[in-house]
Amino acid sequence: xxxxxxxxxxxxxxxxxxxxxxxxxxxxxxxxxxxxxxxxxxxxxxxxxxxxxxxxxxxxxxxxxxxxxxxxxxxxxxxxxxxxxxxxxxxxxxxxxxxxxxxxxxxxxxxxxxxxxxxxxxxxxxxxxxxxxxxxxxxxxxxxxxxxxxxxxxxxxxxxxxxxxxxxxxxxxxxxxxxxxxxxxxxxxxxxxxxxxxxxxxxxxxxxxxxxxxxxxxxxxxxxxxxxxxxxxxxxxxxxxxxxxxxxxxxxxxxxxxxxxxxxxxxxxxxxxxxxxxxxxxxxxxxxxxxxxxxxxxxxxxxx
Length: 304
Known about the structure:
This protein is of the alpha+beta class. It contains eight helices and five strands; from the N terminus they run ααβαββαβααβαα. The longest helix has 46 residues, at 246-291.
Protein backbone atom coordinates (compact mmCIF):
# COMPACT_ATOMS: atom_id res chain seq x y z
CA UNK A 1 0.00 0.00 0.00
CA UNK A 2 2.83 2.37 0.90
CA UNK A 3 4.55 1.62 -2.44
CA UNK A 4 1.40 2.64 -4.35
CA UNK A 5 1.18 5.96 -2.49
CA UNK A 6 4.85 6.71 -3.19
CA UNK A 7 4.45 5.86 -6.87
CA UNK A 8 1.38 8.13 -7.12
CA UNK A 9 3.31 11.04 -5.55
CA UNK A 10 6.18 10.56 -8.01
CA UNK A 11 3.77 10.72 -10.96
CA UNK A 12 2.28 13.99 -9.63
CA UNK A 13 5.74 15.58 -9.23
CA UNK A 14 6.74 14.66 -12.80
CA UNK A 15 3.49 16.12 -14.17
CA UNK A 16 3.97 19.44 -12.31
CA UNK A 17 7.59 19.74 -13.51
CA UNK A 18 6.59 19.15 -17.14
CA UNK A 19 3.89 21.82 -16.96
CA UNK A 20 6.40 24.36 -15.56
CA UNK A 21 8.89 23.72 -18.37
CA UNK A 22 6.18 24.19 -21.01
CA UNK A 23 5.08 27.52 -19.51
CA UNK A 24 8.73 28.72 -19.33
CA UNK A 25 9.28 27.90 -23.01
CA UNK A 26 6.08 29.69 -24.00
CA UNK A 27 7.08 32.76 -22.01
CA UNK A 28 10.49 32.83 -23.71
CA UNK A 29 9.01 32.77 -27.22
CA UNK A 30 6.42 35.42 -26.41
CA UNK A 31 9.16 37.72 -25.02
CA UNK A 32 10.82 37.99 -28.44
CA UNK A 33 7.48 38.73 -30.10
CA UNK A 34 6.72 41.45 -27.52
CA UNK A 35 10.16 42.98 -28.21
CA UNK A 36 9.50 43.34 -31.95
CA UNK A 37 5.98 44.65 -31.26
CA UNK A 38 7.37 47.23 -28.85
CA UNK A 39 9.78 48.55 -31.47
CA UNK A 40 7.04 48.49 -34.08
CA UNK A 41 5.00 50.75 -31.75
CA UNK A 42 7.74 53.38 -31.66
CA UNK A 43 9.80 52.40 -28.58
CA UNK A 44 13.15 54.20 -28.98
CA UNK A 45 15.18 52.97 -25.99
CA UNK A 46 16.62 49.51 -25.96
CA UNK A 47 16.32 49.42 -22.19
CA UNK A 48 12.51 49.39 -22.57
CA UNK A 49 12.53 45.99 -24.27
CA UNK A 50 14.19 42.70 -23.31
CA UNK A 51 15.97 40.61 -25.89
CA UNK A 52 15.56 36.81 -25.76
CA UNK A 53 17.70 34.50 -27.83
CA UNK A 54 16.45 31.11 -29.02
CA UNK A 55 17.02 28.54 -26.30
CA UNK A 56 17.92 31.21 -23.69
CA UNK A 57 15.84 33.24 -21.23
CA UNK A 58 18.55 35.79 -20.38
CA UNK A 59 17.36 39.42 -20.43
CA UNK A 60 19.36 42.30 -21.79
CA UNK A 61 21.39 44.40 -19.37
CA UNK A 62 20.07 47.92 -18.64
CA UNK A 63 21.70 50.80 -20.52
CA UNK A 64 24.09 52.71 -18.22
CA UNK A 65 23.49 56.40 -17.67
CA UNK A 66 25.97 58.84 -19.23
CA UNK A 67 26.22 60.66 -15.88
CA UNK A 68 27.38 57.56 -14.00
CA UNK A 69 30.30 58.34 -11.69
CA UNK A 70 31.57 54.75 -11.73
CA UNK A 71 33.19 55.28 -15.14
CA UNK A 72 36.12 57.08 -13.56
CA UNK A 73 36.74 54.28 -11.07
CA UNK A 74 36.28 51.41 -13.50
CA UNK A 75 38.23 52.87 -16.42
CA UNK A 76 40.80 54.72 -14.31
CA UNK A 77 40.75 57.85 -16.50
CA UNK A 78 43.72 60.10 -15.80
CA UNK A 79 43.48 63.87 -15.64
CA UNK A 80 43.24 65.36 -19.12
CA UNK A 81 44.93 68.77 -19.44
CA UNK A 82 45.31 70.70 -22.71
CA UNK A 83 48.49 72.80 -22.44
CA UNK A 84 49.11 75.84 -24.63
CA UNK A 85 51.68 78.65 -24.59
CA UNK A 86 52.29 81.96 -26.35
CA UNK A 87 55.78 83.48 -26.58
CA UNK A 88 57.06 86.67 -28.20
CA UNK A 89 60.81 86.62 -28.87
CA UNK A 90 63.08 89.32 -30.31
CA UNK A 91 65.74 87.85 -32.61
CA UNK A 92 68.35 89.31 -34.97
CA UNK A 93 67.44 86.97 -37.84
CA UNK A 94 63.78 85.96 -38.17
CA UNK A 95 64.42 83.52 -41.02
CA UNK A 96 67.18 81.78 -39.09
CA UNK A 97 65.02 81.64 -35.96
CA UNK A 98 62.26 79.85 -37.90
CA UNK A 99 64.73 77.18 -39.00
CA UNK A 100 65.92 76.83 -35.39
CA UNK A 101 62.34 76.27 -34.24
CA UNK A 102 61.90 73.56 -36.87
CA UNK A 103 64.99 71.81 -35.50
CA UNK A 104 63.74 72.08 -31.91
CA UNK A 105 60.37 70.59 -32.87
CA UNK A 106 62.03 67.65 -34.63
CA UNK A 107 64.29 66.94 -31.66
CA UNK A 108 61.26 66.80 -29.34
CA UNK A 109 59.32 64.39 -31.63
CA UNK A 110 56.94 67.21 -32.56
CA UNK A 111 56.26 69.15 -35.72
CA UNK A 112 55.60 72.66 -37.05
CA UNK A 113 51.90 73.26 -37.59
CA UNK A 114 52.22 76.58 -39.47
CA UNK A 115 54.77 79.31 -40.26
CA UNK A 116 54.61 82.81 -41.73
CA UNK A 117 57.20 85.53 -42.38
CA UNK A 118 56.38 89.06 -43.47
CA UNK A 119 58.31 92.26 -44.16
CA UNK A 120 57.15 95.33 -42.32
CA UNK A 121 58.02 99.00 -42.75
CA UNK A 122 61.73 99.83 -43.04
CA UNK A 123 62.43 96.21 -44.18
CA UNK A 124 61.93 94.89 -40.67
CA UNK A 125 60.92 91.19 -40.65
CA UNK A 126 58.48 89.46 -38.33
CA UNK A 127 57.35 85.85 -38.15
CA UNK A 128 54.80 83.55 -36.55
CA UNK A 129 55.34 79.83 -35.86
CA UNK A 130 53.02 77.25 -34.27
CA UNK A 131 54.61 74.10 -32.78
CA UNK A 132 52.87 70.85 -31.71
CA UNK A 133 54.97 69.13 -29.05
CA UNK A 134 54.37 66.00 -26.90
CA UNK A 135 53.08 67.11 -23.51
CA UNK A 136 55.99 65.45 -21.72
CA UNK A 137 58.39 67.79 -23.60
CA UNK A 138 56.31 70.93 -23.12
CA UNK A 139 58.46 72.67 -20.49
CA UNK A 140 61.79 71.70 -22.07
CA UNK A 141 60.66 72.93 -25.47
CA UNK A 142 59.46 76.21 -23.97
CA UNK A 143 62.88 76.75 -22.38
CA UNK A 144 64.59 76.06 -25.71
CA UNK A 145 62.39 78.58 -27.52
CA UNK A 146 63.11 81.29 -24.96
CA UNK A 147 66.85 80.72 -25.44
CA UNK A 148 66.88 81.71 -29.15
CA UNK A 149 66.51 85.43 -28.39
CA UNK A 150 65.18 88.04 -25.99
CA UNK A 151 61.78 87.18 -24.53
CA UNK A 152 59.34 90.08 -24.73
CA UNK A 153 56.31 88.24 -23.37
CA UNK A 154 55.34 84.69 -22.43
CA UNK A 155 52.19 83.03 -21.12
CA UNK A 156 51.01 79.45 -20.55
CA UNK A 157 47.50 78.06 -20.19
CA UNK A 158 46.09 74.73 -19.03
CA UNK A 159 42.53 73.61 -19.81
CA UNK A 160 41.15 70.71 -17.78
CA UNK A 161 38.88 68.59 -20.01
CA UNK A 162 38.71 65.54 -17.73
CA UNK A 163 35.02 65.96 -16.96
CA UNK A 164 34.10 66.24 -20.65
CA UNK A 165 36.32 63.27 -21.50
CA UNK A 166 34.72 61.02 -18.86
CA UNK A 167 31.22 62.05 -19.92
CA UNK A 168 32.01 61.30 -23.57
CA UNK A 169 33.37 57.87 -22.65
CA UNK A 170 30.22 57.11 -20.67
CA UNK A 171 28.04 58.14 -23.59
CA UNK A 172 30.14 56.03 -25.93
CA UNK A 173 29.68 52.95 -23.70
CA UNK A 174 25.93 53.59 -23.57
CA UNK A 175 25.62 53.86 -27.35
CA UNK A 176 27.76 50.75 -27.86
CA UNK A 177 25.40 48.77 -25.61
CA UNK A 178 22.39 50.13 -27.46
CA UNK A 179 23.92 49.23 -30.81
CA UNK A 180 24.59 45.65 -29.68
CA UNK A 181 21.01 45.29 -28.45
CA UNK A 182 19.51 46.73 -31.62
CA UNK A 183 21.58 44.31 -33.70
CA UNK A 184 20.29 41.44 -31.57
CA UNK A 185 16.72 42.60 -32.12
CA UNK A 186 17.37 42.88 -35.85
CA UNK A 187 18.31 39.17 -35.95
CA UNK A 188 14.95 38.26 -34.39
CA UNK A 189 12.85 40.52 -36.62
CA UNK A 190 10.93 38.85 -39.45
CA UNK A 191 8.50 41.55 -40.60
CA UNK A 192 9.72 44.18 -43.08
CA UNK A 193 8.08 46.94 -41.05
CA UNK A 194 9.92 45.91 -37.88
CA UNK A 195 13.23 45.58 -39.74
CA UNK A 196 12.91 49.11 -41.13
CA UNK A 197 12.14 50.60 -37.72
CA UNK A 198 15.03 48.82 -36.03
CA UNK A 199 17.42 49.81 -38.85
CA UNK A 200 16.48 53.46 -38.35
CA UNK A 201 17.46 53.19 -34.69
CA UNK A 202 20.72 51.45 -35.60
CA UNK A 203 21.60 54.28 -38.02
CA UNK A 204 20.79 56.91 -35.39
CA UNK A 205 22.90 55.26 -32.71
CA UNK A 206 25.80 54.68 -35.11
CA UNK A 207 25.79 58.36 -36.11
CA UNK A 208 25.96 59.48 -32.48
CA UNK A 209 28.68 56.93 -31.78
CA UNK A 210 30.79 58.24 -34.68
CA UNK A 211 30.37 61.80 -33.43
CA UNK A 212 31.52 60.87 -29.93
CA UNK A 213 34.51 58.94 -31.22
CA UNK A 214 35.54 61.93 -33.34
CA UNK A 215 35.36 64.27 -30.35
CA UNK A 216 37.38 61.87 -28.21
CA UNK A 217 40.08 61.63 -30.89
CA UNK A 218 40.24 65.44 -31.06
CA UNK A 219 40.62 65.76 -27.28
CA UNK A 220 43.29 63.05 -27.21
CA UNK A 221 45.21 64.90 -29.93
CA UNK A 222 45.04 68.21 -28.05
CA UNK A 223 46.09 66.57 -24.78
CA UNK A 224 48.89 64.43 -26.19
CA UNK A 225 50.38 67.24 -28.31
CA UNK A 226 50.65 70.65 -26.66
CA UNK A 227 50.52 73.84 -28.76
CA UNK A 228 53.15 76.57 -28.55
CA UNK A 229 52.66 79.78 -30.57
CA UNK A 230 55.82 81.84 -31.16
CA UNK A 231 55.89 85.43 -32.46
CA UNK A 232 59.27 86.53 -33.82
CA UNK A 233 60.37 90.13 -34.37
CA UNK A 234 63.62 91.90 -35.18
CA UNK A 235 65.05 94.65 -32.91
CA UNK A 236 63.93 98.23 -33.41
CA UNK A 237 66.38 100.40 -35.41
CA UNK A 238 68.31 103.20 -33.72
CA UNK A 239 66.17 106.32 -33.45
CA UNK A 240 62.88 104.53 -33.05
CA UNK A 241 60.78 102.07 -34.92
CA UNK A 242 60.97 103.93 -38.24
CA UNK A 243 64.12 106.00 -37.81
CA UNK A 244 64.64 109.26 -39.77
CA UNK A 245 64.23 109.10 -43.51
CA UNK A 246 64.09 112.22 -45.74
CA UNK A 247 62.60 110.28 -48.61
CA UNK A 248 59.75 109.12 -46.39
CA UNK A 249 59.19 112.71 -45.23
CA UNK A 250 59.00 114.00 -48.83
CA UNK A 251 56.62 111.19 -49.77
CA UNK A 252 54.40 112.01 -46.81
CA UNK A 253 54.37 115.70 -47.86
CA UNK A 254 53.38 114.82 -51.44
CA UNK A 255 50.72 112.46 -50.13
CA UNK A 256 49.39 115.27 -47.92
CA UNK A 257 49.28 117.70 -50.88
CA UNK A 258 47.27 115.31 -53.02
CA UNK A 259 45.12 114.51 -50.03
CA UNK A 260 44.23 118.20 -49.68
CA UNK A 261 43.33 118.42 -53.39
CA UNK A 262 41.14 115.36 -53.01
CA UNK A 263 39.40 116.99 -50.05
CA UNK A 264 38.75 120.20 -52.03
CA UNK A 265 37.30 118.22 -54.94
CA UNK A 266 35.00 116.35 -52.58
CA UNK A 267 33.95 119.62 -50.93
CA UNK A 268 33.25 121.27 -54.33
CA UNK A 269 30.99 118.48 -55.53
CA UNK A 270 29.28 118.41 -52.16
CA UNK A 271 28.43 122.14 -52.40
CA UNK A 272 27.25 122.05 -56.05
CA UNK A 273 23.53 121.81 -55.08
CA UNK A 274 23.89 124.84 -52.79
CA UNK A 275 25.73 126.79 -55.51
CA UNK A 276 22.98 126.05 -58.05
CA UNK A 277 20.23 127.10 -55.62
CA UNK A 278 22.12 130.29 -54.77
CA UNK A 279 22.55 131.16 -58.47
CA UNK A 280 18.82 130.62 -59.13
CA UNK A 281 17.87 132.81 -56.16
CA UNK A 282 20.22 135.58 -57.26
CA UNK A 283 18.79 135.47 -60.83
CA UNK A 284 15.25 135.81 -59.51
CA UNK A 285 16.31 138.75 -57.36
CA UNK A 286 17.91 140.53 -60.33
CA UNK A 287 14.87 139.87 -62.49
CA UNK A 288 12.46 141.36 -59.98
CA UNK A 289 14.71 144.34 -59.45
CA UNK A 290 14.84 145.02 -63.23
CA UNK A 291 11.04 145.01 -63.61
CA UNK A 292 10.41 147.64 -60.91
CA UNK A 293 9.47 151.20 -62.32
CA UNK A 294 12.15 153.84 -62.01
CA UNK A 295 11.56 156.30 -59.15
CA UNK A 296 10.28 159.82 -60.12
CA UNK A 297 12.85 162.58 -59.46
CA UNK A 298 11.99 164.91 -56.58
CA UNK A 299 12.30 168.06 -58.74
CA UNK A 300 9.46 166.96 -61.02
CA UNK A 301 7.31 166.25 -58.03
CA UNK A 302 7.79 169.78 -56.59
CA UNK A 303 6.89 171.48 -59.92
CA UNK A 304 3.57 169.78 -59.97
